[in-house]
Amino acid sequence: MEIQEFDLVVVGGGSAGYAAARTARERVERVAIVDQGPDLGGLCILKGCMPSKTLIYSAEVLHLAQRDQLFGLRIPHAMVDMPGLKKRKVAMVEDFASYRREQLQSDRFTLIRQKARFLDRETLELEDGSGIRTKHFVVTTGSVPQFPAIPGLDPKTAWTSDDVLDLDFLPESVIVLGGGVVACELAQYLNRIGSKVIQIQRSPRILKEASAEAAAVVEQAFRDEGIALYTDTQLERIEQDADGGFAVHFKHKGNVVTVEGKHLMNALGRSPAVNSLNLEAAGVELAPSGHIAVNKFQQSSNPQVYACGDVAGPYEIVHIAILQGEVAAQHALGQSPEPVDYKLRTGVVFTDPQIAEVGIPVAEARDRGIDLIVADYPFDDHGKSILMEARYGYVKVWADKQSGKLVGAECVGKDAGELIHAMAVAISLGANAQQLMKTQWYHPTLSEIWSYPVEDIVDALNSGEST
Hints:
By secondary structure, the chain is an alpha/beta fold. The chain is about 30% helix and about 25% strand.
């Protein structure tokens, strides 16, 4: 077998993989990137963040146009143009992907477009029979849609998010299985462009990784917009008729319910893409979740193999994957990086209203023994959100009662993903509520809504009260 030697090898050319490779090149010369995908760019650019947010934003513009009279406007015949929508999405994705291809194909790296599997602890076997050897691997192979063992759920006929993001026609009706981030973002997108949407969630509420209060706001918005949303269900079976339509049978509130739709989207989660890697040969162990088990430096049970991004968890978030990739490469090459600090994690769900959060959740902070002051304020009593007809939601801030230092924040409402960064900066810098009140919050802006709960926290600190 012909063997090539490298200083570091990255398996997977997405956001985490590129971050690891770029960081490694700051210290060593021979860095290889192995990517077997048909297109270069990674999940975020090709089939995740960028195409989905492009389409979701277009659907929001359409939704606002269709509420023309609410804003004192007349916009007749506002409707989706599916070929035009897809054309814009393709152009956006290509704009981002072309830049990533240019980076990956530069002479800084050796790019290998082949499938690869571990032969032993320090060797990869390529599909052409050759091999790659190095002392440091970084695995960033991402994730794939998960198909649970539900009778009648067929990967050949059920859509995934990939299919929905590539539509060039308006589906008459879609049954969406799942209530996670992808399911909710695309269910609302489909509903807003004009499909009849039925969403079925197995858990008692959607968006179970968000707070119950936040999820309840989004659930109400979905129902107000006309999505037929079922929660706390037990899926029994799926049938497909001769015309290709679907019937889903499930238990709900003690009854067996059957819903029908022309199309079915499976959004019941994703699984780490590890099956083809032959990790056993490399001595790499998996966690019970199916992710590659790693330590705080992203190092697996084989200290020569690191893992980052969706394949490692614990969060399927691009900026986290990038940070992990940088930490892995630095540690592999002898530096002493700071591990990713998940206490500062920022998260956003791009439904409307959006959900955004930063810091340590309230329940977790209290479990850690932190005595909290918690304050909130609603969007429907705030000047800028009222004039924007953006009345769903609230902002919430919690701080350490002893020091006034901010511990976490949550925003559910219009542009929450933008608004949360005011609190993300404050928490990252260790600011307290008193310092934040020195900020000049411009009126009328959405951002000034933060000043109300922060002011309440300052008042509580001064009076010695707890809320």
